[in-house]
Amino acid sequence: MLRLLNLELQKLLLNRTSKILIFVSFILPFFVILLSSLKINVFGFFTLELGELGIFNFPIIWHLTTFFASQFKFFFAIVVVSMIGNEYSNKTIKQNLIDGLSKKEFILSKFYTIIFFSLVSTILIFIISLCIGLYYSSYNEFSIIIKETEFLAAYFVKLIGFFSLCLFFGMLVKRSAFALGFLFILYILEWIIFGIIAWRSNTDLAEKIQNFFPLKSMYKLIDQPFQRIAMTKFPDKANLAYDYGAHGYEILIVLGWTALFIFLSFRLLKKRDL
User: Fold this and answer.
1) Which of 117, 148, 200, 261 has the fewest Cβ atoms within 10 angstroms?
2) Range from 71-80, 84-93, 176-185 carrying the lowest mean pLDDT
3) Phi, psi of 233 (to 5 degrees)
4) Considering only CA atoms, which of 220, 242, 221 is closest in space to residue 230?
């Protein structure tokens, strides 16, 4: 495992564009800190400081930071599809196989890299969230601090699932730009299917089925936190209530898609004439 990971990291770090994108991927989550210190002047009457509104209290901080950080995943997605595009354009994939790397090891080296960067990103978010929470939160009891840290696990799985999908599209079309375009096509396709089911049946059934789709299931791992924040400010508004939790069955759905994407990537490589 370490041998394959080290091999892939050497390739990425020798590529200037990949190094820049990786750096940006790890720097962007720190903008959550800027969000916590943001002050909004409301028409000159008063200043609204987000950090003083209680939205960075434990345990809601885990939900908030993982949601915002997951919006930056597209930068490393470019790195993932570039890993495959560069292999084909530079003919390194053929050279690696000639040098003794099996096709299974080739796919595993990409997958191990995905796991590695997802883990590093999750650790960064953990540190950032903990620091912001300890500074702003009104609660410092250990039991409250660790409550809802399952959002970190959901964030980790979400990154792995999304990058595995990018890996599959990269293997499918061999070109970075086209692979990213397929993500957009898949997004549109999921909503078209949702619309057809809603039209032929009902919206509730369509939503339940849509939650099993690749992109939607990844999104559902960490639902938007804005409604939850509103619930804390207006507890009497029953219509604001919704299920925002990170559930085990949702993680299993994404893990299932992840396994499928890695398997299909391997099958594509195995059948393809290089």
Assistant:
1) 200
2) 84-93
3) -90, -25
4) 242
Band the pLDDT of 39: cuts 50, 70, 90: low
Residues 115-124: what's their mean pLDDT?
A: 92
Question: Could you read off the pLDDT of 40-49 as tens digits, one per residue?
Answer: 554 454 445 5
* pLDDT score of 25 more than 60: yes
pTM above 0.70, yes or no: yes
Query: What average pLDDT score do residues 243-249 get?
Result: 87
Lookup: tokens for 203: 């919206």
Tokens read off for 92: 């390194």
